[in-house]
Structure formats: C-alpha cells, structure tokens
Amino acid sequence: MTPTALPAPHSPGRYRVAFICTGNICRSPSADVVLEHLLDEAGLLDRVRVGSGGMREWHIGKPMDPRSASTLAARGYEATRHRARQVTATWFDEEDVLLAMDQGHLEELSELGNSERVRLFGAFDPLTPGVEVPDPYYGGSEGFEEVLDMIERTCRALVPHIERVVASP
User: Fold this and answer.
1) For position 61, what pLDDT does the model report?
2) How far apart are CA 155 and CA 118, in angstroms?
3) Burial classification of residue 167, based on how many CB atoms lie within 10 Å of its CB (0-12 exposed, 13-18 middle, 19 or more buried)
4) pTM tops 0.85, yes or no
5) What is the pLDDT of residue 3?
6) Number of C-beta neighbours around residue 165 at 10 A
7) Residue 167 contacts by C-beta under 8 Å, 6 or more apart in sequence?
C-alpha cells in the first residue's frame, strides 16, 4: 500500500478521519477545521466525519490554542467548537484513518494500534510530499501562518482521496 492510499472504510460509503498531533491544540485541530470546511464545500460532509486528538493528555477538554484559532478565523474558518482529546487504542476501531502530523506521532500511533490505519498527513502534501507539519506552539505568529498554509494545501489534496474511498463499493 502506498503512503497516500487511504485504508478502506470500516463502513462502506462512510469515512472517519482523525488528525493527530501532540496536545491537540494547534496542528491537528486546525487540520480538522480545514478539512471539514473543504468536505462541506465538496458535498461530502454527510458521509465523512472529521476529528482530531493528541498523543498527550496535557490539554484534554481545553479549547484550541488562541493563536491557532485566530489564524483560522482570519481566513474565515470557525474554530470555537474544538475541545482537546487524547488518542486511545480504541480509535483504531472507530476511525478509518489516523493522520499523523509528524514522524514521531506516526511511530507512536503505529505502536499504539493497527498501523494499517495510520498515515503521515504530509504524505498528501502536493508541494513537498512526506513533509512533517512543524509544531508552531513555541514560536511566533508566522509559524501558525506557515502551518495553516501547509494544512490548507494538503487538505485540498486529500479531499479527492477521501472522495474516491467513499465512492468505492
């Protein structure tokens, strides 16, 4: 299976995508918001559920980092509903694909559960396939802009992959 081939859905005609980062307050919830928006525009949101989680428990129940939320809002996205969650082994039975934001998350997820359901999000990046999405948490606002640029272009490239897997019998 190629790194950009999505796993088959648990339930034909429906798909569940989860983005994974460290604390679930910057990268993964931003990708969640962007992909949900793009799937809505593509008319797929009734068949695809999008979510996100973190590998660590640090921020469970907390909203998105204000810098991520304001960067998303400045581009017209709604980012106020998010509450951080932590990934557990049960996610492998609930989600069709877990998209890791960096190689470390990819490795941790693969150790936690069924690695057939895990992909590197950056594998779908049309500009730099295989790129890791850097953690903007400790930097300035330009890091959040850069991360959102990466997320937007990669989510745009991901939509046709999701559309194909949802349409497959």
Assistant:
1) 77
2) 16
3) exposed
4) yes
5) 60
6) 20
7) none
The residue count of the chain comes to: 169
CB 80 within 8 A of CB 63: yes
Q: Which residue has the tokens 């694909």?
A: 97
Residues in Cβ contact with 126 at an 8 Å cutoff, skipping those fewer than 6 apart: 153, 154, 156, 157
Is residue 122 within 8 A of residue 132, CB to CB? The reply is yes
Q: Nearest 5°: CA angle at 88, between 133 and 44? A: 60
How confident is the model at residue 137, as a pLDDT? 87
Write out the catalytic residue numbers.
21, 27, 135
Q: How far from 40 is each of 6, 47, 123, CA to CA, in Å?
A: 20, 10, 23
pLDDT under 50: residue ranges of the chain: 1-2
Centroid of chain to Cα 32? 5
CB 84 within 8 A of CB 55: no
Phi, psi of 87, deg, nearest 5: -70, 140
Task: Output the pLDDT for position 59.
Answer: 78
> From the CB of residue 116, how many other CB atoms can be counted at a distance below 10 Å?
12
- Give the CA count within 13 Å in the CB-facing half-sphere of 122: 19
- pLDDT of res. 128: 92
